[in-house]
Hints:
CATH class of the largest domain: Alpha Beta
CATH superfamily of the largest domain: NAD(P)-binding Rossmann-like Domain
Radius of gyration: 20 Å
Bound molecules: nicotinamide-adenine-dinucleotide
CATH topology of the largest domain: Rossmann fold
Largest sheet: 6 strands, parallel
CATH architecture of the largest domain: 3-Layer(aba) Sandwich
Shape: elongated
Number of strands: 9
Strand order of the largest sheet: 3-2-1-4-5-6
Mean pLDDT: 96
Distance between the termini: 60 Å
Low-confidence stretches: none
Amino acid sequence: MTQIAFIGLGNMGGPMAANLVKAGHQVTAFDFVQAALDTFVEAGGVAASSAMEAIKDAQVVVSMLPAGKHVAGLYLGSEGLLANLPKDSLVVDSSTIDVETARRVGVEAKSLGIHFVDAPVSGGTAGAKAGTLSFIVGGDQTCFERAQPVLEAMGKNIFHAGDAGAGQIAKMCNNMLLSVLMAGTAEALQMGVENGLDPKVLSDIMVKSSGRNWALEIYNPVPGVMDGTPASNNYQGGFMVDLMNKDLGLALSAAQASNSNVPMGQQASQLFKAHGDAGYGGLDFSSIYQHYSNNKV
Ligand code: NAD
């Protein structure tokens, strides 16, 4: 049993913290939202009145926050958690944030003798509830090995991507590729349909041909083609366009910082941004299929 402080009980953090409790850890959590704390207490956790109170006696801190500014605000500076944690503590930040902030927190932690990993996740709210998330971890080998048992209580696949910040880079590369695959799949299916093809027949052909990819095989964007997909449920649930836009923004900033050439990522980003701006940000990202029929040239 480990004494864990958990900061950020949102859509992802709430169920993740509950899974740590289920695994037998002693978890004290903090969030600004009282209802989130109440739900956590019902799940067997302890509520704290501040992040500083939550880390009292904790050997491990896990955070799941919206963006880099929240993570920097929580950990850095004399009022931040790092300055107030004992040496040899372990800090796991699972938020999806910019690489620079992840690296900055990593460097500061190391200088204080604190183990840090960035460990963004893939798997969405369903994976958070089921405890089947994939964690993409950045940090040195010692930090990774220490984080592994904690992460195993919340996830199924734990990958070591490299040093601090590498988890964020790997996640951005994956999501940028996903956006390209989804946009390309939607585009091809839409063109087939407009030329009289049945989208199910066309999908069956392409899934056994060289156009085969995850979006086509597992997450078909055309309503009615596949049972259980967001597309067959009015694009509800799944991974929101707004979140894809956040991840694409992070990916393009990282690409700029490394002077990487990402024309496909830029193009996909423009498409998803236009779709979000048109009022569809709350739909699953496979709804980009509708963007094509809504925006005829
Ligand atoms: P959310 O907005 O539901 O939850 C964030 C929580 O953090 C909120 O409850 C907020 O009150 C709390 N918070 C913010 N600053 C805080 C602070 N200083 N101290 C304590 N609590 C604070 O967001 P979410 O959907 O849970 O996502 C969290 C992170 O996970 C994001 O970085 C997101 O990009 C990433 N992510 C989300 C999904 C998803 O499907 N929702 C999937 C993968 C990754």
